[in-house]
Amino acid sequence: MGKTGAERIAGKSHLAYEPVAMKEYVKILVADDEPVMGNLLLRVLESEGYNVALASSSTGVMERLEKERFDILLADAKLPGLSGIELLRTVKGEYPDMAIIMMIAYSEGHKVKETLMNGADEYVTKPFKNHEISLILERAYWRLLSNRNSEKKKSIISIAE
Predict the structure, then answer these.
(1) What CATH number corresponds to the domain at position 39?
(2) Closest by Cα among 49, 42, 88, 41 to 65
């Protein structure tokens, strides 16, 4: 398996100040069982320069994750197969470094707390505006990159000691 975008960028500190150039390295897996929503997110995120793949079920998510690495999972809380919380727990357990953003229907706002308590890095309520999802993705990615840079610094310090 190749390195994820965050891993490639973490080793290139001169790129840390070029956010636009980095989006092409960000691998996002979008999981939504509604084809219209999945394709809309695909088009919007690709137009912003992200590297995007789609899955339409929790089984599809797990199959994609077994084949390739992603930086961010943007998943609908209601997918065929595992519940949103079960998928969240499974992915966080197997891929703890991946940022996970859950999409929650406005009418199910009561699930926000449960989603965050179970490891989601962010959430967004549906319906949302394109700029909202863009900001959330960028914030999640920068936090992920910062965490990976911190881990890299710790390993360098421990080697030096």
Answers:
(1) 3.40.50.2300
(2) 88
